[in-house]
Amino acid sequence: MRGAAAVAVLFVSMVWSFGAGALPPHAERDPVQYIAISFDGSRSLEIWEATRAFARKADIKFTYFLSCTYFLHRENRKLYKAPGHSAGRSGIGFAPSADNIKARLDQLNLALAEGHELGSHACGHYDGRPWSEAQWRQEFDSFTSILKNAYANNGLAGEPEDWAETVDAEIRGFRAPFLARSAAMDKVMAKLGFRYDASRIGHWDAPVQRRDDGVWNFNLAVIPEGRSSKPVVTSMDYNFYVRHSHARPRPDRAAEFRDRMYNSYMTYFAKSYYGNRTPLHIGHHFSRWNGGAYWQALKDFANAVCGYEDVRCVTYRELADVLDSIELAKSVPAVLDGEEIRTLSARQK
What we know:
The chain is of the alpha/beta class.
């Protein structure tokens, strides 16, 4: 354990949001508390470098959900056609140049070498709720084709010999833009062999669920925030940005907003760590909203808890590996609560 100061922070945070007496009388146990931290988008090269540098220092791993239009530029953007849109349209734009794409591919390959995970965030960042199965298949196929051909499409040298195989092997998880999922999306994901979907929202202590089609649901959590005890914020930086400043920049309040997110994440952690140890799910973006308040809060949170001996800050792939183990397949057919995950984790040490 990190000591009395760290425990005091957790206790104060929980009392603030849940009332006195909320902290159970146990802490550092042998079973593991898992935390999965991810980033959506992939545009900013500076954020690629910053997140990788922090992960090395903190000895943790991230999942990066990529948007494929950042691997096309203005001259070849018509290689992408979103369902219901004309070719060359994207809700988030494209990369500014082939050189920029090369630098992003370099960051991506460095991240892979360092043990991070790559996942799909689709391509043009559209709301896919009304899409049919055929349209979702079109979007998934576009993602795979554009990423596999990122070097060739942009006239870039240095493509790894096994690049296409790496894309096929690596892209096994998905988070939908806007978290806008549908039954049609679920069906196509299962047919394409995805291992997990990180697009859903659930209560902070909801059990991990595996759908009937074999796909794990990794839910972002509805967690307390601010001075209200009502759980009203999803564990994602953009939702804090909307709540704090109505999605309008207020860098002058960065310190305040950093503290509010940090306290919220620490409460989320404490409720699970001192409770059933259901995995935590935190999603951020390649953005520095409100003067970098949320990036600073995330770093401070990870520094505060990821070093505990009984905490693992892992990729979603690593979490899925635990859940997909042979022992789990024999004993837990569809739903895992924290106790079952802890029991399995202890056996695997």
